[in-house]
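Quarterly update from the structural biology core.
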Amino acid sequence: MKDDLSEITAKGWVCGKCGLPLERGPVSITYMKSSFPVDLPRCPCCGVTFIPPELALGKMREVEKILEDK
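Predicted structure, tokenized:
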């Protein structure tokens, strides 16, 4: 996985609650009292965020390991 998150898109995904197409937008991810601003696909109405498996199992897992090792 690339370090650049700009290729993560929401093409074809819709919010299960609102039925609206997901749009890229700012999201703050928090883990162990550390916050990281990223642009991810999210619902423009309710804000539910889609975290693709590639991100959750790749980059986010790496960051989690680094923070836990501190």
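Helices lie at 53-57, 59-69.
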